């Protein structure tokens, strides 16, 4: 590993990655516990993603002040549209920070997204039990969906106080607008949720093959340090396991589709093997469904929350034991 010692610690808060770049990490990296980044240039800085609620984002804005007092925050880039990366956006908009995201990401940042998440916690059954468990620590009251001031498609190069920062849209992959944030002179990459380190990836948009291609792109890039959307900072050694999991699910699901199994039969019959120990293993339900949808456009497309219910059931929620 050519990483600095600070990188090896997975603790909540600010991490100095060297070369004027930082990460704000939120262990344990499971549902909603996401990471942000901070890139400084001369007299300015750029944030990569906000956090899942206003309190978490406020805590981060306070915690990074030793850096932003010298390098005022002027730009925010959202790597994708999931709430745990955008729900704090309004706190930056209030400070006149310019928000930038891919066009496909912008289209999905809506107030409906906030309300749906808040209301799903009141549901009964596995879904309600699961969301109260997973999203219980977060407060969605007062969140005003705040999209970007400026959008791009494909690639965009930003000047952050004399420093080049490259935005590379690799979505649709995990979500429609996934974007990598590359700082060439620091050989550093903020990967957003294209990388989950130590957890199970979940393919919401797909196709899975494009996510695998995004992993290959990262492996081909001149980067040393990588900050994932969830989990500890890593280097290229962290990319392989994500790529391997995705390829495994793509192969196993495709085989079962060709054998005539339906989605439920496919999910039930896949032995995760070396991936079985990863947290959030129930995400297999969505990942197999996504492969089926790609192979056959006639396969139904249930809402994300219906799928969350299936994931919850696979992980043992809904058995009446609320207290797990
Ligand atoms: Zn996330």
UniProtKB/TrEMBL annotation:
Span of domain Metallo-beta-lactamase: 33-230
InterPro entries per UniProt: Metallo-B-lactamas, NDM-1-like, RibonucZ/Hydroxyglut_hydro
Superkingdom classification of source: Bacteria
SMART domains: Lactamase_B (SM00849)
Xref: Pfam families: Lactamase_B
PANTHER family: ACYL-COENZYME A THIOESTERASE MBLAC2 (PTHR42951:SF4), METALLO-BETA-LACTAMASE DOMAIN-CONTAINING (PTHR42951)
Official protein name in the record: Glyoxylase-like metal-dependent hydrolase (Beta-lactamase superfamily II)
């Amino acid at each position: 590993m050519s990483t600095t010692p600070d990188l090896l610690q997975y603790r909540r808060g600010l991490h100095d990655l060297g070369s004027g770049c930082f990460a704000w990490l939120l262990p344990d990296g499971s549902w909603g516990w996401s990471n942000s980044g901070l890139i400084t240039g001369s007299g300015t800085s750029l944030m990569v993603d906000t956090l899942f609620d206003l309190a978490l984002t406020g805590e981060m804005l306070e915690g990074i002040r030793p850096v932003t007092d010298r390098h005022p925050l002027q730009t925010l880039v959202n790597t994708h549209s999931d709430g745990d990366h955008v729900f704090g956006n309004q706190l930056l908009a209030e400070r006149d920070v310019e928000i930038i995201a891919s066009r496909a990401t912008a289209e999905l940042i809506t107030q409906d997204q906030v309300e749906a998440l808040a209301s799903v916690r009141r549901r009964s059954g596995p879904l309600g039990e699961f969301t109260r468990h997973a999203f219980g620590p977060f407060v969605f009251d007062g969140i005003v969906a705040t999209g970007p001031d400026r959008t791009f498609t494909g690639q965009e190069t930003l000047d952050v106080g004399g420093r080049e920062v490259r935005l590379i849209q690799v979505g649709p992959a995990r979500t429609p607008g996934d974007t990598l944030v590359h700082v060439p002179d620091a050989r550093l990459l903020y990967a957003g949720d294209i990388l989950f380190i130590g957890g199970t990836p979940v393919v919401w948009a797909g196709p899975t093959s494009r996510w695998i291609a995004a992993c290959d792109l990262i492996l081909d890039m001149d980067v040393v340090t990588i900050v994932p959307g969830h989990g500890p900072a890593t280097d290229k050694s962290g990319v392989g396991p994500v790529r391997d999991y995705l390829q495994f699910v793509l192969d196993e699901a495709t085989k079962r589709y060709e054998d005539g199994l339906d989605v439920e039969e496919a999910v039930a019959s896949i032995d995760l093997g070396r991936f079985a120990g990863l947290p959030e293993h129930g995400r297999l339900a969505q990942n197999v469904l996504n492969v089926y949808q790609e192979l056959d456009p006639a396969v139904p497309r249930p809402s994300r929350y219906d799928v969350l219910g299936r994931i919850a059931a696979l992980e043992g929620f809904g058995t009446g034991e609320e207290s797990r």
